[in-house]
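Fresh eyes needed here. I'd like your take on this protein's tokenised backbone:
***
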Amino acid sequence: MDNLIKAEWYKLKKDRSLWTLLIILVAVSLSYPLLIVFDEGADIIKVRDFYQDIILQGNNYVLRLVPCILAGFFISSEYSIGTMKSIASSGNSRFRIYFAKLLVYSIGAILISLVFPIVFTGSASVFLSFNGMPDIGYFLGTLGLTMLYAAAFASLMALFSTIFTDSGKAIGFMLIFFILFDSILYLLSGVNPIFEFVYDYSIFKQFLGIVNAGTMNNAEMVKLIVVPVVTFVVLGILGSILFQKKEIK
């Protein structure tokens, strides 16, 4: 397992799609605060409000959409070019192969999810002259929660990438899915109590609660933490079962 993780980590570090996505996100994080400052002025904007209203809200789309592109190239493409067939015939169990791939891919998704909260907040703080900085406990707490949800979403993306073994199809499907699914699930939740329960305990809804982490009670915080952990484990197991039964060409 250790050698599998090292091999996947090496491939992730060399993955051009990851570095391209990170560079684009960093560029946006460094340049976008300038537009806000020129439009509204640095004196009237507080960093904590900017962090909650712009950065965390915007990171919702980054975390759900950008890693889809990485999944298409890092996971799905390996089926089409024959790499996955070579790995599967190496003698390692498919369970270990899948979880090594999932763990390393989750690290890539986490790196993507942290660009806005760290780089964006840092650049905004400089442009806004550190006016009204967020509480350090709240900031670190939201970072930790963001990492948990990035891993949870990554487990779902890895599952889809295993189903669609072509990178183009995988990316296209996942982008449409993650744009529309939570809205569809929300509408269904108003019709049937089962869908309401699924939506209330889904990562799609719970992730939106990160911005309110500083004002939640203990029960709400426990749910906010447990949901992504359970999602990662359950989807990871489902993905590994699918991978074991999958015919790799």
User: Anything to note?
Assistant: Residues 2-245 form one domain. The two ends are 23 Å apart (CA to CA). The CA atoms of residues 65 and 179 lie 8 Å apart. The first helix runs from residue 2 to 13.
